[in-house]
Input
Amino acid sequence: MRTRNIFLSALGVAVLMALLPFLGVGGYVLGLLTSAFYFGVFAMGWDLLFGFAGEVNFGPSFLIGVGAYTAGLLNHYAHWPIVACVPLGALAAVVAGLLLAVPALRLSGPYFGLVTLVAVLLLQNVIVIFAGFTGGEIGLDLPDVLAISSRVNYWYALGLATVVGLALFALSRSAVGLILQASGQDAVEAAALGFNVVRHKLAAFCISALVSGLAGAMLIFYLGTVSTDSVVDIAIGVQVIIAAVLGGRRTILGAAVGAVFLIVAGELLRPVGQLSSFIVSAVALLVILFFPGGLLGRVIVREGA
Amino acid sequence: MKALQILIDGFAISSLYATGAIGFTLIFGVSGVLNLSHGSIMVTAAVVAWLVAGSFGAGAYGGALVGIAAAVIVSLVTYGLVVRPIQHSRTIAREEKEIFVLTGTLLWGIMVQEAIAYIFTNNPKTVLPLIGGVVNLLGVRTPANEIAIAAIAWIAMGLLWLLVNRTRGGKALMAAAINPRGLTLCGFELGSIHLLVWTIYGVLAGVAGVLLGSFLGVSSDNAGQLTASAFSIVVLGGLGSVTGSLVAAYVVGYLESITAYLVNPSIRTVPVLVLLVIVVYLRPQGLLGRR
Output
């Protein structure tokens, strides 16, 4: 499909989704979709880094967690308003991402992956060690919430997912996106063509950190509490990765679809109890083995690619 | 006294780490696969050993053997069902196979872990100790089982050394790690070498899993942690380097024991993580890595 058509269809889907609350959809479903949209943003940020820059970030929840905890601590202790906490959280995620990425991008493949994984484990340990200040594993209550109404919360999440999704998609189809893709597939050749590979990857990492931190900070004001289980745990990162791969790498928008699919499937499978994550993982594995392009891989493939 | 205690406990836990990590590094060396279902395979071995030794009354040794056999089976299934199809896939671009193997084994690991949790719950299981009783070792009361664990781990690693250096199959295996194409040109079937290395890996992971189960107890929730620790040890030692993994396992084991005894057991993994970051930044090839 042409870029323009995909862009317009995505916008159309977003508008239709925005009308859902008027079609008699209940608060329960809206709540489910709200978390799915935040997850979608995490997954899209991850796809930019992995699908395009070719770097496997095992620690998306490091960036999410830094954003969430910065915003949460500011709100809990300094009582700053949400409009100040969320941007600061996003900013903190970018700074933390830069501190991680500047040295880490000298590494490649599994080494980069391991460093990002270790970053998550260290963050989690720090939060647990300073439990008196951070709330530890139990979490920290937040005095403010985004909104009481499930509809308003839903629109906030949908709005964020739409803006981030379209922006990242446009970026991925721009010249910068092409250079990133080239750096991911053959860094040496991309550098030989005169592109600054490291700078482009660093920029991708910063953008990924920005959207992850932003969504992480907003997510906790939706949940009303910030805890390691909801924003830092490795399991969160694994879910983000599964969502992105399931939806289709290198598609950006597919990652959001994957996240919605994952969250809704997890909810529909609730009756089978513990088996639900088994089934979700099995489905994801089958998709990887038989449709490596993912759910949207066939639809959103750049012409000639 | 405390120093001696750390020395003994650290030795046992390090030997365990080494056994698990050497299998992990061997697979990476021979076929370039980082198997993220490693922890789940270890847990499988421990839980099966616990089940067979306890509920079926096969005794500690019978349980351990069946547990190791189970690990070999899961390891071969991992190769046959997940890794091989991805490596041979025509739709996945060559440069992306590595990431697909990572994601695929990660998902497969979660499946195994969840299946175990579903059937046997995620309560920690303690495998029957192979040897009962307590030995007085230079004034430190040490469970005899702890000594047995270190001994078995070293015997397993010794057998691996013999296999690799003294047998035709083992030499072919090392050759595959150095130059797979050269080996196929000499008329060796790469497929059977991969089967061999996954079998050896299954045995090593199984031994490590069963021993860990009898030492500390194992729950399906530990799978991720076990994978992460094997991954860390292997990178610390240098990817693909067996000696490096051995050295790194002892560094990690002792660092953890020292932290747990002298500082606080709840932060036992933190110094290792910090060390890992420092090593990876200053010397990405690891302590004894090639390149």
